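Lecture 7, part 2: worked example. A protein chain together with pyridoxal-5'-phosphate.
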Amino acid sequence: MSRLHSRSWVREAVRIIEADANRSADTHLHVFPLPAEWGIDLYLKDESVHPTGSLKHRLARSLFLYGLVNGQIGQNTVLVEASSGSTAVSEAYFARMLGLRFITVVPRSTSPEKIALIEFYGGECHYVDRAPDMYPEAERLASECNGHYLDQFTYAERATDWRGNNNIAESVYAQMQSERHPVPTWIVVGAGTGGTSATFGRYVRYKRHTTKIAVVDPENSSFFGAWETGALDYATGMPSRIEGIGRPRVEPSFVPGVIDEMLQVPDAGSLAAIRLLRERTGHWAGGSTGTNLFGAFTLISRMISEGQAGSVVTLLCDGGERYANTYYNDEWLAQKQIDIAPYREMYQEFLVSGKLAPVV
Ligand SMILES: Cc1ncc(COP(=O)(O)O)c(C=O)c1O
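Predicted complex, written out as structure tokens:
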């Protein structure tokens, strides 16, 4: 594929993307209120306030810069991705900014809200019936139109600068500096591509922080089994019900070596937690944030039982408005036979006693 793109076009494209970053403020770090006597503080990094509404705004920016500096994106390049949603929304935004055509391969089951968002930013959706067909179809489409496959699952860990450069980890530590426990005991994130956990895991090791990284995994996902057994070919072949995280196979950007602990989280626990978040803080989040909160509460209850003070940081990954007709709709939950009531009780008890009694 020997083609040289005009250097002046690439220079201007990089300027436009950097200008977007320069116009954007950093995302907030919110406090989740816990009883003061616990001596533990919980924070949520609010990635829903990015211009395209999720943590994927950072990844999309990195993937575009990575493609531009590698000579893979030029003024006539058709961009292709395989995404279940958030990444495609952000990539469509950057493609439009550069005046490029953007096609994303999505499962037919993707929520109408996400499809509307991708098309709002000028993206085109190309449907496949089965989630595993997304990757080969994206590759076929890219070669058919002599385009560039951005391929978040492969390049997320490579395109993101783990040393700093205002990555999400550097931003968290800067915003924690004046807190009573500035170096978190735990950082809790989920995994879709695995890029976010790789960035945090590498950064804390590079900066020689004592912080440990915990990755939460929803039902049906392959990551926990792979991490626990060490078998990176571990595959469930099953889709996740928590949009954005959990994968039918282990993705190339998943870096198990930087993960100190993994926790499996029941979907009902994730979806009960985002209701609690809204009640206690007013913040409206997507399902993967609930998975993060379940993980954070589990580690906090352990810290309490071990008499350990400290801070825990997790992510508010995207906004809840995208899930008004699903996770926040009781009929949808009933249809999916997801009973969140026992977990809502569990969280009420936890926020009083600090004990997270397992739901049987
Ligand atoms: C809403 C949401 N949360 C969490 C994640 C996980 O992030 P990562 O892909 O960096 O593992 C994603 C990824 O798509 C997402 O869309």
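Residues 54, 56, 86-87, 156, 190-196, 244-245, 286, 288, 317-318 surround pyridoxal-5'-phosphate (CB under 6 Å). The CA atoms of residues 8 and 14 lie 10 Å apart. Keep this in mind for problem set question 3.
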